[in-house]
Amino acid sequence: MQIGVVSLFPEMVAAIAEFGVVGRAQRRELISLDIENPRDHTTDAHRTVDDRPYGGGPGMVMKVEPVAAALEALKSKLPRGCPVVYLSPQGGVFDQATAKRFSDLPGMVLLAGRYEGIDERLIELHVDEELSLGDFVLSGGEIAAMAVIDAVVRLLPGVLGDDESAVQDSFVEGLLDHPHYTRPEEIAGKVVPEVLLSGDHAQIARWRNKQALGRSFLRRPDLLEKLDLSVEQQELLDEFLKEQRQ
Ligand code: 9D3
Question: Ligand 1 centroid to 28 CA: how many Å?
Answer without folding.
Answer: 34
